[in-house]
Amino acid sequence: MTNPFLAESKxxxxxxDFAAVRDEHYLPAFERGMSEQLAEIAEITADPAPxxxxxxxxxxxxxxxxxxxxxxxxxxxxxxxTTPHIQELEEDLAPRLAAHHDAIVLDAELFAxxxxxxxxxxxxxxxxxxxQSYLVHRRRTEMVLAGxxxxxxxxxxxxxxxxTISTLTTRFEKNLLxxxxxxxxxxxxxxxxxxxxxxxxxxxxxxxSARDLDGWLVTLVLPTGHPWLGALEDPATRARIMAASRxxxxxxxxxxxxxxxxxxxxxxxxxxxxxxxxxxxSVVTADETAGSPAAVAELLTRLAPAAARNAAAERxxxxxxxxxxIGAADWAHAADAVRRERFAIDTAALxxxxxxxxxxxxxVFFAAERLYGLRFAERDDLRGWNDEVRVFEVSxxxxxxxxxxxxxxxxxxxxxxxxxxxxxxxxxxxxxxSVVTNNLNVPRPAAGEPTLLTLxxxxxxxxxxxxALHGLFAQARxxxxxxxxxxxxxxxxxxxxxxxxxxxxxxxADYARHHETGEPLDPAIxxxxxxxxxxxxxxxxxxYLQAALLxxxxxxxxxxxxxxxxxxxxxxxxxxxxxGLASDAIPPRYATTYFAHVFSxxxxxxxxxxxxxxxxxxxTVEWFRENGGMTRENGERFRRRLLQTASAxxxxxxxxxxxxxxxxxxxxxxxxxxx
Length: 675
What we know:
Layout: H1 23-46, H2 53-62, H3 65-80, H4 84-105, H5 108-122, H6 130-146, H7 152-182, E1 185-187, H8 198-210, E2 216-218, H9 235-246, H10 258-274, H11 280-285, H12 293-322, H13 331-343, H14 356-372, E3 375-378, E4 390-396, E5 399-409, E6 419-424, E7 434-442, H15 455-473, H16 488-499, H17 505-511, H18 523-531, H19 537-555, H20 559-564, H21 568-578, H22 596-599, H23 609-626, H24 632-643, H25 651-659, H26 666-671
Parallel strand pairs: 5-7
Antiparallel strand pairs: 1-2, 3-4, 4-5, 6-7
Helix pairs in contact: 1-2, 1-3, 1-4, 4-7, 5-6, 7-10, 12-13, 12-19, 14-15, 14-17, 15-16, 16-23, 24-25
């Protein structure tokens, strides 16, 4: 049987041929891909000619085609539709892939050639154009921070640490998926689910049926809170769901993550010291727009006191209406009651106006058409990794833009949360187009029932589509600069901007229609929704900042400090208390043992990125409002000056080109009620 990874896909847009992939294809393709790429690197370093951009950087950018093809498909399945075989292979591959990566980034001869190209540009001997210069700078910086300048003894220890870290992060993700599934809350008495809409009850019954259970099953989501807590009337049921969510990874058993986290933090701290840094956070921020942990701390600690004050005021208001003290499981329910009283908004009752297909076509796609002139045609002839995946061809007046794949529904084989990924990244050097994906975890309704979204799910779809637009629009010559390959604390910016359009009057009026009657959402309700956006910002800012500061606390530990931590829960409690954000009613959005972003998702010491990017986002929203809002002219400016170019140059330069100045903090403070 031919291995589909060994040759370029024959499908339109180089879409991977998922239907042709079998379990037995992965390992041989990984092994061949690693071997071929190392041979390609050896050919570069063996070239007797002096190093140039053309004989060093370009072949480096072309290397690893087979490995890239198999890794893209494998890790798409590992996240979106995993199997026991994939999980086992992922754990086996983790140290091997870490070693392969090290073999490249720690190659002294390769580093010497890249450094020579960099010096020749700097001294004017062999000047490069702007994108070439940016690529050389990025590659050189990445190799320095990876340890390319260390001696061989240090590199040997670094390789061992990298393999350990890779294995631990893979185990963390596997444990979390399994524990999230295991801790789903089984309900046998429908009365305990009073308050849920018919569609939510159907989804819970479907989830139970899928596991051959009677009754209903409330599956957990990635964050601490659950989207049904606001509607559920039974305090005991709310408490069960919250307790199950917070127990993930910390209740003992096969999937406990507590010891694993301590090992991981210690390994990262030792790795940082080897690289010449005090702690892991210093390594990470050295290659971000923030520049240092101090800059991150300055922003987070500036926001924390005001967020805590606002949260305390919100709690007092909720408890006054509730008539008693509220705990973490009750907050969403009490907040929904306040929204009903103050703003005459019942978020659960709004779901019939947020039917998923209409939100997608008349909301998300509608906004993209108005701003960027995009058109979307569903391609039923093309298949994704699961039968639930939908494929859309994207075009504009200039022709084809790429493919967009959407995997909307939750399933036991899919990790929690929502994300964007690229299957193919546009590169002029390789002649490749853009193929991007969005994954969400919306509960699937019963057969024949409509998919009715919560307002949070609507905003999540707009957010993730913002990432997809970034991937579709980004134009770069070189693969390393293609797609969303920007600094991590910049990458959330385009997605956050796209969230704006979910509540934009023109867009909301187009998609918010009753799924049975087609009746538009009352304009008065639409206006109250926008008025209510600031309500609850104390809670949402506090739960986010708790997670961001917790991430920083773990990764600000040096080697000795990390060794001294023996109790993960106690460390977490102390870190939140020190930040002035500890609260029995507001837990962190993610607690340590299920904080996938930072212990398996590549956001280690980088969860601050969301609020850092939101500074840019809030200022950009202000610009749109100042300049006429949703117009094609404004969309084209944002596309041409930011989305298309920010991966191929300093993204803050791209922002200044778009905005005319550096970002101001005031719009964010105003938005979140922190001014």
